[in-house]
Specification:
Blueprint lengths: L4 H24 L28 H17 L2 H6 L1 H28 L7
Length: 117
């Protein structure tokens, strides 16, 4: 049980933080209720109709590609911090990594994944 104390403390801290933020928004948040305030957000204007139905696949495809490339390129920050310690080996590895990322971007552009037509 002693080995799991840190994990249990981390889970408890996360639960308290999340619960605290939810409680703060409940206590400090606005309490306006009305026809416009209870409807889905549309820039403060009263919506003409509630949108339902299908959403285009292109929207999800662009969102997934954004998340994919964004998460992959986050690896550039720690690499840049320890760049001098890695030397030429680290540079070559990051160059190969960037070639893979750029080839994926080229492939998605070539297939028309980012076009909205």
């Amino acid at each position: 049980m002693e080995n799991y104390l840190g994990l249990l403390l981390l889970i408890g801290f996360a639960a308290l933080t999340a619960g605290g933020f939810i409680a703060l928004t409940h206590w400090l948040g606005p309490r306006r209720h009305g026809l416009v305030h209870d409807m889905p957000f549309e820039c403060g204007n009263r919506p003409r109709r509630i949108m339902g139905g299908r959403v285009g696949v292109k929207f999800f495809l662009v969102a997934i590609l954004f998340i994919l490339f964004d998460v992959e390129l986050v690896f550039l920050f720690p690499w840049a911090v320890i760049y001098k310690e890695l030397g030429l080996f680290g540079f070559v590895e990051m160059f190969i990594f960037l070639l893979v990322v750029l080839s994926g971007l080229y492939y998605s552009v070539k297939k028309g994944a980012l076009e909205w037509k």
